[in-house]
């Protein structure tokens, strides 16, 4: 409990500085955002995200369990801009080791599929603590390397986030993800903060999640907002 409180205060202090909208590294994972749940034996997912304009992202993923502690998956993101006038795509291959319940280490390899796209490697450490029977808080620390994550002037991309969560039985989950990122070597122009309320409902073998991204402003940066719908079906 003491560790969780100290960690929460540290993250809130970091997030209290100015920032702007969702970072591309958010998509550099084989899951649909932070998720401490074990993967099904095999599952397929489909999603749609938009910024309320002509720009959309369509993520498709496959994931499964190799052994009791090992998960792996692949996700393809298709980005369509300006009414499909410009379409780009990327693929992420990832794996996760669960060294104890609620805690994991993850490695993702991100590859742009278009001519001038860059690649990236992203390391993730995540954990979830139950503070009460129906309330938990998840934390995630990520570091991204290579030009796909950091840009040309960055050395490393760092991400820190937490997700307070209310559990209503096993079927309904309400979350608020707070995530922030910035590049070492390019901090002022590349620092972002997003608050993402989420509602997830489990129906049979499917998980359906609705996200609403709220980008927090910095004076000269973006104020984009977006909504996403994701469906993951165990097979």
Short note summarizing the structure:
With 235 residues, the chain is mainly β. It has helices spanning 2-15, 147-150, and strands at residues 42-50, 56-67, 70-81, 86-100, 103-112, 119-132, 135-145, 156-168, 172-184, 186-203, 206-215, 225-234.
Structural class of the helix and strand makeup?
mainly beta
The major pleated sheet works out as:
12 strands, antiparallel, barrel
Q: Bin the strand percentage.
A: over 45%
Query: Spatial order of the strands in the main sheet?
Result: 1-2-3-4-5-6-7-8-9-10-11-12
SSE order = HEEEEEEEHEEEEE
How is this fold's topology laid out?
Blueprint: H1 2-15, E1 42-50, E2 56-67, E3 70-81, E4 86-100, E5 103-112, E6 119-132, E7 135-145, H2 147-150, E8 156-168, E9 172-184, E10 186-203, E11 206-215, E12 225-234
Antiparallel strand pairs: 1-2, 1-12, 2-3, 3-4, 4-5, 5-6, 6-7, 7-8, 8-9, 9-10, 10-11, 11-12
Care to describe what's here?
With 235 residues, the protein is mainly β. It is 8% helix and 63% strand. It is built from two helices and twelve strands, in the order αβββββββαβββββ. It has helices at 2-15, 147-150, and strands at 42-50, 56-67, 70-81, 86-100, 103-112, 119-132, 135-145, 156-168, 172-184, 186-203, 206-215, 225-234. A twelve-stranded antiparallel β-barrel has the order 1-2-3-4-5-6-7-8-9-10-11-12. The model is unreliable at 1-21 (pLDDT under 50).
């Amino acid at each position: 409990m003491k560790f969780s409180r100290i960690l929460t205060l540290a993250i809130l202090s970091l997030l209290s500085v100015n920032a702007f909208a969702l970072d591309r590294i958010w998509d550099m994972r084989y899951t649909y955002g932070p998720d401490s749940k074990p993967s099904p034996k095999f599952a397929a997912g489909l999603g749609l995200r938009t910024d309320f304009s002509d720009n959309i992202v369509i993520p498709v993923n496959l994931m499964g369990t190799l052994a009791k502690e090992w998960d792996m998956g692949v996700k393809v993101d298709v980005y369509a801009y300006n009414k499909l006038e410009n379409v780009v795509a990327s693929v992420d291959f990832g794996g996760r080791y669960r060294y104890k319940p609620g805690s994991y280490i993850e490695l993702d390899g991100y590859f742009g599929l278009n001519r001038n796209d860059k690649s990236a490697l992203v390391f993730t450490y995540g954990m979830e603590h139950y503070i009460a029977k129906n309330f938990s808080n998840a934390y995630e620390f990520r570091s991204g390397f290579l030009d796909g994550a950091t840009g040309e002037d960055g050395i490393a991309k760092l991400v820190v986030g937490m997700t307070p969560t209310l559990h209503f039985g096993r079927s309904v989950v309400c979350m608020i993800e707070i995530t922030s990122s910035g590049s070492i070597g390019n901090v002022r122009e590349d620092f972002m903060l997003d608050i993402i309320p989420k509602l997830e409902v489990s129906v049979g073998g499917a998980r359906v999640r609705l996200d609403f991204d709220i980008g927090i402003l910095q004076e000269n940066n973006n104020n984009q907002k977006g909504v996403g719908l994701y469906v993951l079906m165990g097979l």
